[in-house]
Amino acid sequence: MLTRARERARGIELEQRHFDLAALGMLAVGAFFAFVLYFGWSGGKVGGALALGLRFLLGGVAYVVPIALLASGAILVLRPVLPSMRPFRAGWICLLLALSLGLAGRMFGLGPLDPVRHGYFHAAYFRHHGGLVGEAEYWATRTLFQDVGAHIVFVFLLLAGVLLISGASIAGVLRVTRTGVAASARRATASIHDLATIVAGGEPESDRRGGGWHDPGGEAAPPDVEPVVRATHVEAPALHRGRRGRATARAVPALRAGRSTRVGIARGGDGRGPDTAGGAPLPGHRGGRSGLSAAELVAARAVEARRTRRWGGP
User: Phi and psi dihedrals of 195, rounded to 5?
Assistant: First the structure.
């Protein structure tokens, strides 16, 4: 009979809508207990009896139960997007056991000072501390491992619960801590250096870098001032005429052939005629305009500007 019942239970597969219904029930119960425990509502006969039962079993941990129920309901709703549910269950169990043990033994100052403990399993004491569960934990751990061992068990359960619920790892926590400590040390070093510079009458490093704090181990922060564009293109020198212009015109065919020479651009002697090369039209001349491309004109003007700076004057 028992084997068949187990096989039937294994054959039942719950769908997400069933988990959603269970989550709604947890949210409703959690909200009800929140009003009863946090806001002092009576809750009726059922609510009052349940609140007394929770305080008897868990003591001060009973005030964590509404939060645990609300969080469990949210986790059930998010079950399809979570990798696994087991770490959350184990984490909540470890966290509740750790809090019960810590309140029962007043470890690290947890729990109220009154009433004072006189032995074990006194309802007047454990109802205000770790409850019956925490009292049993404290009695077992202190009997087996003394007070030091009970403290070690409390720290272990607390850290295990936090790591399981958060999904973090000890290596990740250490890495984040190391990064924060290193950044704080760099800030402290930079502040001390700036203070020493100000006392000595100099200019702080942050002011020389345009204001604001600068991380010596990282990249400098970009300035808040918008960049100013001085020029968007290169201005070509003006055209020269006369004797120098005729020399430039004669050098254009050489430039087009790829040879280096002193080049100038000019029109005819009167400034109105076609481009000439020793009295003859330039190659590619059509209709009073030379056949030079824009790039050739810019290159010729640059060469003319260099020649002018070297020899000066027309």
Answer: -65, -40
Question: What is the C-alpha separation between 112 and 134, in angstroms, rounded?
Answer: 15
Could you please report the per-residue DSSP string of 42-87?
Answer: --HHHHHHHHHHHHHHHGGGGGGHHHHHHHHHHHHHTGGGSS-SHH
Domain boundary among 43, 67, 82: 82
Q: What is the pLDDT of residue 65?
A: 92
Same domain flag for 193 and 252: no
- 276: helix, strand or coil: strand
Dist CA 92 CA 36 (whole Å): 22
Residue at which a domain ends, from 62, 82, 102: 82
pLDDT score at 273:
42
Tell me which residue range forms the domain holding 181: 174-205
User: Tell me, what's the pLDDT at 211?
Assistant: 47
Backbone angles phi, psi at 109, to 5 degrees: 80, 15
pLDDT at 182: 86
- Tell me if 276 sits within 8 A of 268, measured CB to CB: yes
Task: Count Cα neighbours of 51 within 13 Å in the Cβ-side half-sphere.
Answer: 19
Instruction: Of 251, 289, 253, 249, give the one whose Cα is nearest residue 269.
Output: 249
pTM: 0.54
Within a domain: 216: no
Counts of helices then strands in the chain (DSSP H, E): 11, 2
Give the total number of structural domains in the chain.
3
- Residue stretches of the chain with pLDDT short of 70: 1-11, 202-295, 309-314
Please indicate, yes or no, if residue 127 is contained in any of the structural domains.
Answer: no
Residue 311 is which amino acid? Answer: W
Tell me if 213 is assigned to some domain.
no
